[in-house]
Write a structure and sequence with these properties.
The protein has helices spanning 19-32, 70-84, 103-111, 119-129, 142-155, 178-185, 239-246; strands at 2-9, 36-45, 59-67, 92-97, 132-135, 160-164, 174-177, 189-192, 203-206, 213-215, 218-225, 234-236. It is of the alpha+beta class and 247 residues long. The chain has a six-stranded antiparallel beta sheet with strand order 5-4-1-3-2-6. The protein starts with a strand and ends with a helix.
């Protein structure tokens, strides 16, 4: 099996579901078709600037999947995008073997967080490295974010996880031991922002917004010390902190 990264961007309009929803929908279809197994989906925040047309947040998504046949994977994802991209969207799709993604693609992703980039530069970059990249709807501007998504995921220190193999993140709630939580949602580590790791026996409270961050090439749940309770020692870090660490 080969690990592929699939980047998608600009699939929505102001009335439709967002790109994150479409990424999760695509993940489910890839698995139900037995074409690929999906490990994770990460959300990557790109540059906010009036010169860039975006629907709401200017974020793109990257699916990390294991599969065998690249051309079938491309065809399946392409058909999905053409079918599901909202009217008026500028959908872009990018797929490449993770191991073969050149450092220049990660550099592109980092630039996309602070610069206005162009389609022509994206096309030139993928041509030099044999990467599949295609604009499928509208102006095709989504190729910029789709390419950035695979570059940032490959770099391993940007974005937050919106889907992870195992138990659905949105279904988590209550009190878990570290050992139990890592086993049911396949997260790599649970630790404080200061990188102090928790013991397997440590108990933590999981609220209704669990989003592991991509850090050092690992999916990491960030936690904080719990206050005034004996039921658990830790709580999952609040949304505001996770956004500050992953945007």
């Amino acid at each position: 099996m080969v690990e592929f990264l699939i980047g998608i961007d600009d699939t929505d309009n102001k009335e439709s579901r967002g790109t994150g929803f479409r990424a999760r929908q695509l993940a489910g279809l890839l698995e139900s078709s037995s074409l690929a197994s999906v490990h994770a989906i990460t959300r990557h925040q790109l540059f906010f600037d009036s010169r860039i047309p975006y629907t709401s947040h200017n974020s793109s998504a990257c699916l990390s999947v294991n599969g065998v046949e690249k051309e079938k994977l491309i065809s399946f994802c392409r058909e999905f995008m053409l079918r599901e991209c909202a009217p008026g969207s500028d959908g872009g799709l990018c797929i490449h073997e993770k191991e073969l993604i050149h450092p220049s693609i990660s550099d592109w992703g980092l630039r996309a967080k602070s610069e206005v980039l162009t389609q022509d530069e994206a096309k030139s970059l993928v041509s030099a490295h044999g990467i599949y990249l295609e604009g499928l709807t509208g102006t095709h501007d989504g190729i910029i974010g789709a390419l950035a998504a695979i570059g940032l995921h490959k770099a391993g220190n940007d974005g937050r996880c919106i889907w992870l193999s195992g138990k659905e993140l949105r279904e988590l709630n209550g009190i878990y031991s570290v050992e139990d939580l890592t086993s049911i949602c396949n997260v790599d580590e649970i630790r404080e922002q200061s990188d102090i790791r928790l013991s397997n026996e440590a108990r933590l409270f999981v609220g209704n917004w669990v989003r592991p961050v991509l850090k050092d090439h690992k999916m990491v749940i960030i936690v904080e010390k719990a206050i005034n309770t004996k039921e658990y020692e830790w709580i999952v870090a609040p949304k505001s902190l996770i956004k500050s660490l992953s945007d």
